[in-house]
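Internal tracking record. Fields below are filled automatically when a chain is submitted to the structure queue. Please do not edit lines marked as system-generated. If the sequence contains nonstandard residues, flag them in the REMARKS field before resubmitting.
Queue: standard
Priority: normal
Entity type: single polypeptide chain
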Amino acid sequence: MRPELDIQTQAFRNDPYPHYARLRRDRPVVYVSSLLGPAYLVTRYEDVKRVLDDERFKADARNVPGSAGPADPWWFPSSLRAFRENMLSTDDPQHKRLRTLVHKAFTPKRIEELTGTIERMVGELLDRAERKNRIDLLANFALPLPLNVISDMLAVPETERAPFHRWTQAFLDGTANGVKGLLRHLPGTMMMMRLLRKLIRLRRRDPGPDLVSALVQAEEQGDVLSESELVAMIFFLLLAGHETTVNLIGSGTLALLDHPDELERLRADPALIHTGIEELVRYANPVETGGPRWASEDVTLSGFTIPRGAMVLPALASANRDETVFAHPDRLDLSRSPNRHLGFGHGAHYCLGAPLARLEGRIAISALVKRFPNIALDAPRASLQWRSSIAVRGLRRLPVMLDAGGRTAAAA
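SYSTEM-GENERATED OUTPUT FOLLOWS
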């Protein structure tokens, strides 16, 4: 059976929502091409939720003998196999074990204690940005905030933070460009792994109040994380801890600029950010597809049977625009309630870092729109480019003028 759709074309990446709407209506489960091989893309809300929550869909292909998605393709470097040992790519009981160990080092109390630190960082970044006026909002604001927050939590040296972001971005974009894309970035990935192993050795010798030390020391009924699990977990936390929030702040700001009436509502009523951040997650979809799953038996969704062993991609971005669940789904409504979006996943693999992303997003976007009432795009809207990864949905750049001299974003 040949794939019916290529979801990695630039046309699809630029604006996937009309495609998703058509698929939800006519072909809610569609066979598509992807890096790991052909997969079934699931687009309706209830079906996506079921894929995320149904134990028949496994996060680790190794738990489905004869699956269509081998865990180790011929081109997959053995040095990168440690990355598989993370919460996103494991099933219970291994997933529960890893999540329990990590949760002890990533508690809500720890997140809440970061409020003052995040507010200070936001203020400093906006001070520097104001002196320039014309900036790339991603490079100058949306990226350094979450990258520095999670790096502080993990005690990553400041000299390694920018290189780490380049490596993680290359890793994500490389996965969207096939074998050559991944292999081209292999040297940087190897350097990243050496950094993580060095960090683990340092914290074993000299533990501190950071997350890496807590992970090294975490125990649950005498259990500890192996070095491979530690490498995968730290990489996963660094990646998820800043990539998702970069896209939430960047794409969320773009959504507000595209909807000046909602932007003015937020300025007039700052408390609106609490429901507003949930709506920006739903509307902007910083994570476009959830981690791949493999069907452990034949499963029927929306009248279509997914065969045992097939790979399944849950399209979170499509589920969050499902018209059977959300009234006027393509409209940004910062007061939307209820808002049962799947932007942070669902079920056992629900994003552990969601509270941190929400906190950073609320503080950053609130401060940005309050401080710069005349912020506007500094490039034609049609010229903005989206990244090639189907896992995350984010812009490559977001040029803005912080003080556009009274011009509105719509006029710019």
